[in-house]
Amino acid sequence: MGGSTLIGLAAAAIVLVIVLVAVLRLHAFLALLLASLFLGLATGMEANKLVSSYETGVGATLGHLAGILGLGAILGKVLADSGGADQLASWLIRLFGQRRLPWAMLFLGLLIGVTVFFEVGVVLLLPILLTVVRQSRQSMLAIGIPVLAGLSITHGLVPPHPGALIAVDAYHANIGLTILYGLLVALPSGVVAGPLLGAWLAKRIQPSGPAWSGAAAQTTAATSDPLPSLPATLLTVLFPIALMLMATAAQLMLPPGSAVRSVLIFIGNPVIALLLAVLLAYQVLGLARGMSAGRLLMSTSESLLPLAGLLLIIGAGGGFKAILIESGVGKAIADLAVRANWSPLVVAYAIAALVRVATGSATVALTTTAGLMVPIVARVPGTSPELMVLATGAGSLILSHVNDAGFWLVKEYLGLTVKETLQTWTVMETVLSVAAFALVLVLSQFV
To answer: InterPro entries from the xrefs (predicted)?
Structure first.
């Protein structure tokens, strides 16, 4: 089968995912499974090989990510239940002062966003956000947009978030370098799409409705008990990131036979680093502050329940990626890209952006794009896999609209109409995406 035919069938499979998710409102897990079967059969794969390839892709993806996602969810839940997030907010407000509150909220979003999913971060920080808005009498958008920008940019670019981890795994990128480059890109991008854009929007748009009414009760509950100390909270949040960065430094600076190098690489593995961080959080934020083992068990169980759908989507995305590779589509696209002399960074960003706009899912966009781009990265010398992760992640953030669950979450929690959400949240996501990709292109000149 010719390369153009294979590419056409791959495009049809992607369109099928888009139609099933965005038009027919089918769950992304089912849409990806059906698209995988369609692509495999259409390209002439033998039925048994099709099924085995899909299962291998699912297993390879979840085998690497399931433990990381579970541990990350537990860590975020303990941080929420202990009041650690409130402690961070109070510290940042004291540090920055009233006039610089938007900047404080951006950094709060970045800090919390490193360890929790975007949706969890929104729910977690909403009571703090409303408290800050009420006390400072500043615009909801001036304070809220920076928080959302910080949460969103870390969710899309910085491991151990699932989207970034999918891309790290697919491109065989170094996770420590990806974190370092991701933070270098995330901070200035968040500044542009957060405090600067938030101040501009606040002068032009006033939310029509009240923010989510349940937040007041959450605020009261969150502040009724003594908060954990600031050093304990910061230690818990930054501990796994520090371990991963130390592992990268050991790989670069220590000889292969070094015992210290082996130990640092082991404890810097994302699963081990997050496991150690969870155990530290249990002790420092839980047991040391009087939280019972039963309460910690309940928090752990509650944190894992929402992961089912996400794991199914990620697994199905891994299966779809495997079919893209086994059917020869990846090689056909690689051949085309090499002949056309396209920049892999530009291609990855464009594909991720198109899938994101069509499906509303950053996870689907990242998984689909990574599956298509892996052969191209392998055949284009000098392409940084870490920057490929960031380019793909930047594309997956663009133009969130009505087919994105995050769109409705922000709308309801901030008391916006659909039009106002398009004018604020959608604009913010687009500015964030473009700014991040521009910085990736700048970094590519030095990496």
So the answer is: Glcn_transporter
